[in-house]
Amino acid sequence: MNPAQQLKISIAMATYNGGKYLREQLDSFLTQTRLPDELIINDDCSTDDTLEILQAFAEKAPFVVRWEQNEQNLGYTGNFNKSLMKTTGDLVFLSDQDDVWFSDKLAVMERYALDNPAALVVMNDAALTDTNLNDTGLTKQGQIASAGMTDSSFVMGCCAVVRRELLNICLPINAHYKGHDGWIVKMAE
Fold it and tell me: Is residue 187 a contact partner of residue 83, using CB atoms and an 8 Å limit?
């Protein structure tokens, strides 16, 4: 891809006592074939080793990493809202602390966004694994289809990339809304 065709990519991550899985997700950012331009992390008052992991990662990452800890617990939606509000990218990926991304996720999704400029939110499928990252052979979209539901029923923040234009309209997320990802998708609709 021509660098002139690249968009600025941010990853918005919310953490809370995620030390058990966090390193694997952070390492998957380092192996991306297209690195992000920034990683914005908001921590919701973790009491485990999450902050130490974040600090160590920020010191070695080849891209901008900014993280902050809340003074009080905001909950899942509030924590993601705070992280999203600090991003500056044209495309913003939502990241849970316990996921691991395929190495071409950012590149593939960026290409799709460039080819489909009217798409405000783009979703990718998710391969489901066990706790040791062994593939179960199931996917999230496969589960939705087998339940007789349509693709429009698929709302999963960790599978979403959002355009800045939409975030400028839908942020901040209503504090009473249950789920940052559902809010974003409803606003896109």
Answer: no
Q: How, if at all, do strands 91-95 and 64-69 pair?
A: unpaired
Query: Do 123 and 52 meet the contact criterion of CB atoms below 8 Å apart?
Result: no
For residues 104 and 164, give the distance between their C-alpha atoms in angstroms, rounded to a whole number.
21
**Model-level pTM?**
0.84
Preceding peptide of 172 cis, ω within 30°: yes
pLDDT per residue, tens digit, the chain (189 aa), is: 555 578 999 999 999 999 999 999 999 999 999 999 999 999 999 999 999 999 999 999 999 999 999 999 998 888 988 999 999 999 999 999 988 998 999 999 999 999 999 988 877 665 566 777 777 665 565 555 566 655 554 455 566 788 999 889 887 877 776 766 666 666 666
Concatenated DSSP letters of 87-110: ---SEEEEE-TT----TTHHHHHH
Please state, in angstroms and rounded to a whole number, the distance separating the CA atoms of residues 107 and 75: 31
Phi/psi for 121 (5° steps) reads -135, 135
